[in-house]
From TrEMBL:
It comes from Pelagerythrobacter rhizovicinus. Residues 2-256 form the Glutamyl/glutaminyl-tRNA synthetase class Ib catalytic domain. PANTHER family: GLUTAMATE--TRNA LIGASE, GLUTAMYL-Q TRNA(ASP) SYNTHETASE. Keywords: Aminoacyl-tRNA synthetase, ATP-binding, Ligase, Metal-binding, Nucleotide-binding, Protein biosynthesis, Zinc. This is tRNA glutamyl-Q(34) synthetase GluQRS. One of its GO terms (cellular component) is cytosol.
């Protein structure tokens, strides 16, 4: 059975881009007689606002969506720690004490997620008293798994190329946020039985890393559906902190959510908003 999901982070209200993403995931499941899951990705300790989860549920119900809710990330920290311990035990993680500024200064290339970590701490003895993040040794990991492919329903078969993101962080320095998005989301999608990972094209590149993690951890391999993003007049994706009125504001102002959902499905977007490539 097909299982899709919508996995918002409660660090700001949802906007039209999220509504579109949730509708795509919901409809893909419903069209094929499958399940649509809601997962609250709430492990960003500093920025997470737990009260927003309730607002998200009200927004999705207002849009006329129905879902099964699975455990939030904060309830699954033990599984992230266990997976990280396993990879560390296999010699695939190394500690890194670099700051953001140091990485920006040392990076030779900029990848899809910003400056690519140049491997400064790889093979370096790090004082264990210092707070350290743990990074995946992507070259070593790939040497062990061999070449990998993954399939996006829209873009077709992809050769996994995780090196373009560099040695990503799997365990964050900040102890309040024990796992990075890459590790947590990959483990959760497997635990939730997600068969079609549905999300925006802004996360396309992340899938190269997720595919590698699946191979390393022996997780099932889903198919992906990276949908186009809603863009503003300047061609930028809608952002929580920028230009887009929140779904909660629209809902509280008395707008009809079912009409909005029907418009988004039909490609009728509000003035100034368009669907990207
Ligand atoms: N929690 C992520 C976000 O809100 C989405 C992650 C995903 O869909 O894989 O951007």
């Amino acid at each position: 059975m097909i299982v899709t999901r919508f996995a918002p982070s409660p660090n700001g209200s949802l906007h039209l881009g999220h509504a579109f993403s949730a509708i795509v995931a919901h409809d893909l499941a419903r069209e094929r007689g499958g399940r649509f899951l809601l997962r609250i990705e709430d492990i960003d300790g500093a920025r997470s606002r737990p009260e927003l989860a309730e607002e998200f549920r009200a927004d999705l119900a207002w849009l006329g969506l129905e879902w099964d809710e699975v455990a939030p990330q904060s309830a699954r920290v033990a599984s992230y720690t266990a997976a990280a311990d396993r990879l560390r035990g296999e010699g695939l993680l190394y500690p890194c004490t670099c700051t953001r500024a140091e990485i920006a200064a040392a990076a030779k290339t900029v990848g899809p997620e910003g400056p690519v970590y140049p491997g400064t701490c790889k093979g370096r003895a790090v004082d264990t008293g210092e707070p350290a993040a743990w990074r995946l040794d992507v070259a070593e990991a790939l040497a062990r798994t061999g070449p990998l492919t993954w399939t996006d329903e829209c873009a077709g078969v992809q050769q996994a190329d995780p090196a373009r993101l560099g040695d990503v962080v799997l365990v964050r320095k900040d102890r309040e946020t024990p796992a990075s998005y890459h590790l947590a989301a990959t483990l959760d999608d497997a635990a939730d039985g997600v068969t079609l990972v549905t999300r925006g094209r802004d996360l396309f590149a992340a899938t190269h890393i997720h595919r590698l993690l699946q191979a390393l951890l022996g997780l099932p391999v889903p198919t992906w559906h990276h949908h186009p993003l809603l863009l503003d007049r300047e061609g930028r994706k809608l952002a929580k902190r920028r230009n887009s009125p929140s779904l909660a504001d629209r809902r509280r102002a008395g707008e009809d959510g079912l009409t909005l959902a029907a418009d988004l499905r039909a490609g009728r977007f509000p003035a100034g908003i368009s669907l990207g490539e």
